[in-house]
Amino acid sequence: MAVALLVRHGRTAANADGILAGWTPGVHLDEKGREQAERLGQRLAPTPLVAVVSSPLERCRQTAEAIQGAQPGARPARHLEDDIGECRYGAWTGGRLKDLADEPLWREVQERPSTVLFPPHERYESESMTQMRDRAVRAVRAWDERIEAEHGPGAVWAAVSHGDVIKALLSWFLGSPLDRFQRIVVDPASVSIVRQSSRQPFVLRVNDTGTDPVDLRALSTALTKETPDGRRDDAAVGGGAGSD
């Protein structure tokens, strides 16, 4: 019952210019992206994080560093995880979105992403969107189990990843088919919050880009205690009283 923060990296010049960066090396946060990452780190500072797990790509590592650096006291451990890395877009990597939108595959990506396999490329790997989702789900669940085993129920950790990856994760946590994942919006430097109980996943927040502090200390404490009905892993019928 650890709590996972799904964090998208801050903005890059590729984002601003409408370029699908994928696994292109050397894509860093732009000035606005660095400001977003710093601001997000400050927002998350009230919540003690036990770990920050990042995609290996530079834009995520920079965002993870900002989150880690804003934590007061002992800094959480930072790890790299390939399986929450960006989708492997193959020959689409580095393409301009306005050009890619003219390709027949674009409509499949929009309407039937579960059928999409990105075209191969001699330099960049390609994969299907289903493969992307499945590896990311496996990774987040494995890290969640590891975090809870090491730090106990209610521990909070951050996974710093990419827009399509987080959208696919959220669709899985929501129990929604991958073919509906484009309905979910995940902006740069946003935070979404999920947790996996022994019975089912719960989605606590989606695409939060606000300015209020994210303080999960009360929730973290609540997850270590019994609920009034004695069924901590069940949803509260009627919505419950929430946490302070």
What does this protein structure show overall?
The protein has a single domain (3-222), classed as Phosphoglycerate mutase-like (Rossmann fold), CATH 3.40.50.1240. It starts with a strand and ends in a 22-residue tail after the last helix. The protein has helices at residues 13-17, 31-44, 58-70, 97-100, 104-111, 129-151, 163-173, 217-222; strands at residues 3-8, 51-54, 77-80, 156-161, 191-196, 201-208. The protein is an alpha/beta fold and 244 residues long. Helix 3 (58-70) links the parallel strand 2 (51-54) and strand 3 (77-80). It contains eight helices and six strands; from the N terminus they run E-H-H-E-H-E-H-H-H-E-H-E-E-H. It is globular. Strands 3-2-4-1-5-6 form a six-stranded mixed β-sheet, with helices on both faces.
Give the helices and strands, then pairings.
Elements: E1 3-8, H1 13-17, H2 31-44, E2 51-54, H3 58-70, E3 77-80, H4 97-100, H5 104-111, H6 129-151, E4 156-161, H7 163-173, E5 191-196, E6 201-208, H8 217-222
Parallel strand pairs: 1-4, 2-3, 2-4
Antiparallel strand pairs: 1-5, 5-6
Helix pairs in contact: 2-3, 6-7
